[in-house]
Structures are given as C-alpha cells and as structure tokens.
Write a structure and sequence with these properties.
about 210 residues, mainly beta, 12-stranded antiparallel β-sheet, 12 strands, globular
Length: about 210
C-alpha cells in the first residue's frame, strides 16, 4: 500500500492548474472580497494514506504528484474543490509494499492511474476551519467522504499582502468500501487520508 497513503496536505490534486479565487487583503469570512487567481505549488503539496497493521505500526503511503483546482473560492469558501492524485507516484515507509499496492489486487495503477476527489459541500466550523464533503473515486468506485479542513493562518507572506493559500484536509475511509480488501487479516480496514495543498498568487482579476 505504498502509494495508497494520502496526505491533503486532501488530495488530491493531479497535475491541474488551480483557479482558486480569494480576497488578497480580506477578512477570511468576507465572501464579497475581490478575487485573485492562485496556482498549486506542487513542491509543497502532497497526499498521504495511513493504515494500521497487526505489527502495531502504520503503513504510510505518500503520493508525490498531485493536482488541485479550486473553483469559486472566495473568503475561504469554495464552490468546488477538485483534487487529482497520480496513483503511480506512490512511495511507502515500507519499500516493498509499494509494488503490491500498485498492483492489480489493490490500486491497479496500470488501469486506474488517478485517484480523484470532487467536493459537493463545504460547511464552515470556524474562521479558519470547515468540513468538506465530496466524492472520492478509487479505481472504478466512488464513495462520499467528509474531510476536516484547516487553513493555514500564518501564511509566509509580507505584511499586508497574502500571496499564499494553504490548507490541510483530514478524513477516513474504508478500504473494503472501495474493493481494496486484500490482506484484511494483517492490515486494517480504516485508511487515514491527509491532503496538504499550498497555492501561490498568480494574478488578480481585472
């Protein structure tokens, strides 16, 4: 399960150009703020999957190539979040596991090279937090999942100008629900998914 571990540092954002819109100097709760285009920084973004096993340790799998697209993102509220994960970019803390996870009995990356998440609803729970519900697709199976989202409050920006937008999304899903039941006696069913995504300002809308 080497590339199966997702980290959102959600998710899942495969080689896409992000078109997030957010207020540059705005109150994060102000959805009337001016819109600014952002693009994903792939070097600071990634997805991990963590799964417990009978040896009381975790199998951690990281996907190194992701793409993300945010549509209608304004005042830290998005109309839609789309994440695409390159399932062939999997690495694991247990090297030999990656090959098994990529194989036909698990992710079958030869036929299903991408894992996708598309949001359907966002509910704010705080100034910089919220619950993001959407559809996760692994292989040919799509199931709803809910991710707890936390936006980075301390952006690495000069005073008075927010040039980066970063968030982490955490959630869980059942392997069996996606037909990934191999090694069920040795490896847990629940997968912890984490997506970390960081965007940088591209240009302001006229």
């Amino acid at each position: 399960m080497r590339r199966l571990t997702a980290r959102v540092g959600a998710i899942v954002m495969f080689a896409c150009a992000a078109c997030a819109v957010v207020g540059v100097n705005a109150d994060p709760t102000d959805t009337s703020a001016p819109q600014t285009q952002y693009r994903l920084d792939p070097t600071r973004s990634g997805v991990t999957f963590d799964v417990a096993n009978v040896w009381h340790s975790n199998l951690t799998m990281r996907f190194n190539r992701i793409g993300a697209q945010l549509e209608g993102f304004q005042g830290f509220v998005a109309d839609r979040v789309m994440v695409t994960i390159d399932a062939t970019s999997l690495e694991s803390n247990t090297p030999f596991v990656a090959g098994f996870v990529e194989g036909g009995d698990m992710l079958d990356v030869a036929h299903f090279p991408a894992i996708r998440f598309v949001s359907t609803r966002f509910v704010r729970t705080g100034t910089f937090t919220g619950l993001l519900t959407g559809d996760l697709t692994i292989r040919a199976t799509t199931r709803p999942v809910t991710l707890a989202v936390a936006f980075d409050e301390d952006a690495r920006d000069p005073p008075g100008a927010r040039r980066t937008l970063a968030f982490t999304a955490d959630g869980h899903f059942s392997r069996a629900a996606f037909g990934l039941s191999k090694w069920s006696r040795a490896v847990g069913d629940e997968v912890h998914l984490r997506i970390h995504a960081e965007f940088v300002q591209e240009r302001a809308n006229p």
